């Protein structure tokens, strides 16, 4: 799958495409249904599948720190889209220029001139353009005038409730990891390259693999996890996702301690699957209290993962 960051890029398809537009933060089972319909249409008319998405999310641009936490980082979103048959991830910077583009300008410049869209599939509540002035009705009129096809999607329900990123965030926050996995169509995961940390865990006998989290994550706390990317099978461990208040951490970090693993793998990309939540993150009165809790967390994670 190609990753393209400019609407005027020469890497974009030149003879048309099938397209969907959205944040695709979770790539949950509702998103997957949209992507399957796109693939089916693409196969029928022999056109590539393009997903137009944004960084930062439009809500982050307008609301900054008050925006909704993200479910995925860019690399996780990339791989989830790739695994669902997308040919091109068009990742556009959401900035003042895009925010002030009128709906009519967006249709002409982005959909018609740049992408030569043949078929467009959007969510049933899709809005776009300056002040969210564009909607599905406007797209229908544009499609009739400019010669492309547009359809919208029906809401996907599970247990009589709408499948949405908002619902999945709530489930993850409440520790309902299995139901969240059902709505995602996979285990919730975070991916990235291993970076060097403060090595406090190594000093205490609990070396960790550290991933930087450069966005506001949907969840924090301590979890039983499985890690992929370090061999043929997944490896069990315990992870802390948060700001590490006991050691006065200033940034969000994902720290993973793998059982019976002590290799240095800096720079290697891993995928951390969240299996069960153990507890919320908290500040301890001393390092000794923290170390004792880490040992209890590791024992709990081993029991959850049935590690002997």
Please explain how this structure is put together:
With 308 residues, the chain is α/β, with parallel strands linked by helices. It contains 10 helices and 14 strands. Strand 2 (17-21), helix 1 (29-45) and strand 3 (49-55) form a beta-alpha-beta unit.
Set out the fold topology:
Blueprint: E1 2-4, E2 17-21, H1 29-45, E3 49-55, H2 58-63, H3 74-83, E4 88-93, H4 96-99, H5 103-114, E5 117-122, H6 136-146, E6 149-152, E7 157-158, E8 161-162, H7 165-173, H8 177-184, E9 189-193, H9 200-203, E10 209-212, E11 221-228, E12 235-242, E13 253-258, E14 269-279, H10 287-305
Parallel strand pairs: 1-4, 2-3, 2-5, 3-4, 5-6
Antiparallel strand pairs: 7-8, 9-14, 10-13, 11-12, 11-14, 12-13
Low-pLDDT windows of residues = none
- Give the number of helices: 10
Please name the CATH topology of the largest domain.
Rossmann fold
Physical arrangement of strands within the biggest beta sheet: 1-4-3-2-5-6
Query: Ends: how far apart?
Result: 40 Å
What proportion of the residues is helical, as a percent range? 25-40%
Structural class determined from secondary elements = alpha/beta
Fourth-level CATH superfamily of the largest domain: HUPs
Compute the number of strand runs.
14
Write the CATH architecture name of the largest domain. 3-Layer(aba) Sandwich
Keywords:
308 residues, Rossmann fold, 6-stranded parallel sheet, 32% helix, 25% strand
What's a quick, concise take on this entry?
This protein is an alpha/beta fold. Helix content is 32%, strand content 25%.
